[in-house]
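Training component of the fellowship. As part of building independent skills, the fellow (R.M.) carried out the full modelling exercise for a liganded target. The chosen ligand was NDP. The inputs are recorded below so that the supervisory panel can assess the work.
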Amino acid sequence: MRSISIFGATGSVGESTYDLICRAGGAQTFRTVALTGGRNVARLAEMARVLRPEVAVCADDSCLPALRDALAGTGVEVAAGDAAIAEAADRPADWVMSAIVGAAGLVPGLRALRHGRALALANKESLVTAGPLLMATAARHDAQILPVDSEHSAIYQALVGEDIAAVERIILTASGGALRDWPLEALAQATVKEALAHPNWAMGQRITIDSASMFNKALEVIETREFFGVRPEQIEVIIHPESLIHSLVGFQDGAIMAHMGAPDMRHSIGYALNWPARAPLPVARLDLAQIATLSFRAPDLERYPALRLCREVMEARGLAGAAFNAAKEIALDRFLEGRIGFMDMAGVVEDTLARMMPEMCLETDAMTLEDILGADHLARVRASEAAAALAARR
Ligand code: NDP
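Fellow's submitted model of the complex:
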């Protein structure tokens, strides 16, 4: 029986993964090793009652008594805290879904790679923060990383049977997010509610705001560089409002392979779950005659400064990715708290990177987990200072 674990089971990607696992037979087909959540203990317990994992873990220590009560008498072990999540990742499983949001997903993903045969990676922050370390760990332990981000799954599928050396460019599509058609001058006043109204994808709150600011796409540009090993100048971004082409690969003979499908994460999750085979998935089929037209436009870097910043991060290399991601997470927190404006998020990240470059050697190529966590921590301190300064001026 195939064994699986889901990290971030209670989130948007986690729910879609759970749905596919249940449709494929649930506990009859899979032996679940670990299920983890953050604070949503009620949902975690419901899932655990169905899939009967060895262990259910919540990140928040204060939620442990509720989790213990909810799973009393089931025989499912319960635990809480970051160390318990890392320990759960040490339990070998054939297939592991990494769907915790943010830098918190890095350590469990790394630990799982040391044992797991396949890591389905939704947590793009791991690759942005620690790409070289993650890829080297996978290579050392003969583990397979399967991209789950729809863009990277699309690229991965377009590259099956191809030589990466024949790739001229990779074109990432972006919906442009909820504020795509707003006048540039109005963006500074955008509220959280307005930024959350994504036109096509139903996703977690944080990634939805990151889509509106294109910080999500900026992370994906870096993720592409780290995962596929292409040069930054080979990666392009195009706005495609319909979100039906998930990304494209251009080859040196001029051919372009595009991956199309309905905007439903169960496609890329299902591809990773069934890889290397394909199996039927419960996703809507496209009616091309009804769609009739697809549109594209170049992104405006003034509207989306994150796309400019990610180029600077790729040039700096080393720990700049960790600093970029951590500063972005703090900026997003402050925006969600209503303390800074929508466009201030890019200001916080830019200011943090500018202050950290001389303070520590971001360019280092010798990356240990300690270096990465150190850069992450310092960037959070610097970004908090930058956000406080901006908030005071509002
Ligand atoms: P959600 O916010 O919906 O879910 C996040 C999950 O992580 C939840 O299970 C949450 O628990 C848990 N969690 C939150 N904080 C912590 C923490 N500090 N430690 C451990 N667990 C924590 O996120 P998404 O599902 O939207 O995204 C997950 C990842 O997948 C992200 O990296 C995102 O960029 C990526 N991704 C998401 C896509 C999507 O369609 N949603 C598409 C492509 C990539 P709880 O809810 O119980 O508090």
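The panel noted the following from the submitted structure. Residues 270 and 281 are 7 Å apart (CA to CA). The chain has three domains: 2-147, 155-262, 317-393.
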